[in-house]
Amino acid sequence: MQCSIRDSCQLALGLTLLPHFSAHPLSSFLSLLAVPAFTFYCVPSVDTSFMYMIAGLCMLKLYQTRHPDINASAYSAYASFAVVICLAVLGVVFGKNGMWFWVIFSMIHVLASLALSTQIYYMGRFKIDGPDSDLGIFRRAAMVLYTDCIQQCSRPMYMDRMVLLIVGNLVNWSFAIFGLVYRPRDFASYILGIFICNLLLYLAFYIIMKLRSSEKLLPIPLFCIVATAVVWAAALYFFFQTLSSWEETPAESREKNRPCILLGFFDDHDVWHFLSAAALFFSFLVLLTLDDDLDTVRRDKIPVF
């Protein structure tokens, strides 16, 4: 990210958060998303992988705002995206009839949710240090499980954070149970739903913790949040108007087509693209302006959550 001379001086004086006054990776992926979206009717669901990465980068952008020292490296972040994309491909191939795949995927999903919750609750400082022997490591792990999980759940040190993380885990476990029971045919959209819900949960967690820390939402980010919610609601309305299906034959898919609703040329799916582009624009503005109230606050005075 680029910053001005003023921002560099603020950093040297220990002022404000690290200045990320641009969204080059996010905007780059949004531009690249236009290419697979253009070829959607020839190669369906190619653009979904870019949507995974945009949602993941948005979560990383939020996390690195308060944790610049423990943020994931670019190599590990993009390697994680590659693993998710591989799982999505395996899900499309084996997810329709393979119960074994859903069991393995649900276990990975639940364990990943618990690991990320631990990372967020302890602010990246959770470690299991023990002797070199395997038994010593297991003994230390059991002790940590008792002191930090069983006792902490009954008397949590960070009550707000614990409640919000419990809600997030319940949502993710509900996704895992839903996948095991119903085994949705469109696995790529199922994964995308998980990413979007987790992004919304983390954004809600961030805003709630920000307000609980006596910080303010300035008019511009507040307007962007409201505009994002309104435009996304309108966009999703048109998105769920089923006009075609890549799982059916071309003749069967054409039977779902409807007359154009905008200027006699654009149908519901085109309107979805227009509105979702505007919604993504406002979403990025939310990420860029959310902490504008901390522009002149020293970093050692800013709460970490």
From TrEMBL:
<keyword id="KW-0812">Transmembrane</keyword>
<feature type="transmembrane region" description="Helical">
    <location>
        <begin position="162"/>
        <end position="181"/>
    </location>
</feature>
<dbReference type="GO" id="GO:0051033">
    <property type="term" value="F:RNA transmembrane transporter activity"/>
</dbReference>
<protein>
    <recommendedName>
        <fullName>SID1 transmembrane family member 1</fullName>
    </recommendedName>
</protein>
<keyword id="KW-0732">Signal</keyword>
<dbReference type="InterPro" id="IPR025958">
    <property type="entry name" value="SID1_TM_fam"/>
</dbReference>
<dbReference type="GO" id="GO:0005764">
    <property type="term" value="C:lysosome"/>
</dbReference>
<comment type="similarity">
    <text>Belongs to the SID1 family.</text>
</comment>
<feature type="transmembrane region" description="Helical">
    <location>
        <begin position="187"/>
        <end position="208"/>
    </location>
</feature>
<keyword id="KW-0325">Glycoprotein</keyword>
<keyword id="KW-0472">Membrane</keyword>
<dbReference type="GO" id="GO:0005886">
    <property type="term" value="C:plasma membrane"/>
</dbReference>
<dbReference type="GO" id="GO:0003725">
    <property type="term" value="F:double-stranded RNA binding"/>
</dbReference>
<feature type="transmembrane region" description="Helical">
    <location>
        <begin position="72"/>
        <end position="94"/>
    </location>
</feature>
<feature type="transmembrane region" description="Helical">
    <location>
        <begin position="100"/>
        <end position="122"/>
    </location>
</feature>
<keyword id="KW-1133">Transmembrane helix</keyword>
<feature type="transmembrane region" description="Helical">
    <location>
        <begin position="33"/>
        <end position="60"/>
    </location>
</feature>
<dbReference type="Pfam" id="PF13965">
    <property type="entry name" value="SID-1_RNA_chan"/>
</dbReference>
<feature type="transmembrane region" description="Helical">
    <location>
        <begin position="271"/>
        <end position="290"/>
    </location>
</feature>
<feature type="transmembrane region" description="Helical">
    <location>
        <begin position="220"/>
        <end position="240"/>
    </location>
</feature>
